[in-house]
Write a structure and sequence with these properties.
This protein has 16 helices and no strands. It has 310 residues and is an all-alpha fold.
Length: 310
């Protein structure tokens, strides 16, 4: 059992569960008679569910075609919001009064299991999956037996509101790995070397931090950017040429990348999803509010790199 909970390969089971739930969303969409984009939305979630369930058992070319297909569906506006089960305000208040703080237990189950797994030297993402399953079971306990469909429909509503942005983070992370393998870091380093005098320590730090922020804005993910920019600038120039402490400069470079996260719609789970869930008319409002703080934080990183990494 410990081997199962410690292995990243165990995540495959949670991907399958995610795929089954996504297929269920597709079925509920087909039953939504008044959905304005019923077929496109059902196909989107259905194909995504097949990808999650099939995993690496699906040939890479086929999987890639499926991803492009659902991306095109979203791009041409065939994925949209439908009609969902709603409870009355009186019912919601009654259930809040009945359950009290127990309503928070599913939330604590998800994050708590991830922390417990990490403390026990087990795989924290497996803990996150276990916690998510526990949270779903708790939700089933809290509601009447005939309300399972309502829970799933609530999940469909949230997923429909997020839409295509829901699948962006894992695909961007995979793209970052692809870029690193293809040697994009070397190309980026060549470009920055042509602009910045890398023999100057300050300019080298500016190039590293700027590369992290800009590439994060492009990729929407600082982890994806880190592999590319650190391979091209961080290791050979900032660490190799100027002698920066690897651990310190690595942490600060990653944090500088997250300044770019605050400025890009590509970081959809941070910047676009909240606007969608809160029904904010301007989908870029979150980015606009964060912009000044992001730029100030980025500039602060140059100072921290200079005085902490050497």
């Amino acid at each position: 059992m410990r081997a199962f909970l410690s292995s990243g390969s165990s995540l495959e089971y949670f991907y399958i569960i995610t795929g089954v739930i996504t297929l269920f969303f597709a079925l509920l969409t087909l039953k939504d008679e008044k959905h304005p984009q019923k077929m496109g939305t059902a196909i989107f979630w259905g194909v995504l569910g097949i990808i999650f369930i099939g995993g690496d058992r699906i040939p890479p070319l086929v999987s890639g075609i499926m991803v492009i297909f659902i991306a095109l569906l979203a791009g041409i506006g065939k994925v949209g919001k439908g009609n969902y089960y709603k409870t009355t305000a009186e019912f919601q208040k009654k259930r809040r009064d009945e359950l009290g703080n127990r309503l928070l237990l599913p939330i604590f189950a998800i994050s708590g299991m991830a922390i417990v797994f990490a403390l026990l030297n087990l795989h924290p993402l497996v803990g996150f999956g276990v916690g998510s399953v526990l949270a779903l079971l708790m939700a089933l306990i809290y509601v009447p037996r005939d309300s399972f469909m309502h829970i799933m429909d609530a999940g469909r509503e949230t997923s429909d509101h997020i839409g295509w942005a829901l699948i962006l983070p894992p695909y961007l992370a995979a793209l970052g790995k692809l870029f690193a393998t293809a040697g994009v870091g070397d190309i980026v380093a060549t470009g920055f070397t042509a602009v910045f005098p890398m023999e100057n320590q300050i300019w080298a730090l500016v190039a590293y931090a700027l590369g992290m922020a800009v590439f994060t804005m492009i990729m929407g993910n600082a982890f994806a950017a880190f592999a590319v920019i650190t391979a091209g600038i961080g290791v050979p120039i900032v660490i190799g040429m100027h002698g920066a402490d690897p651990a310190t400069i690595g942490v600060l470079a990653m944090s500088a990348g997250y300044c770019g996260t605050l400025l890009t719609p590509m970081a959809a789970n941070f910047n676009i999803v909240p606007a969608a869930l809160l029904d904010i008319r301007d989908e870029y409002k979150v980015i606009k509010v964060q912009a000044s703080i992001a730029l100030l934080l980025w500039g602060t990183h140059i100072v921290l790199m200079k005085y902490m990494a050497f």
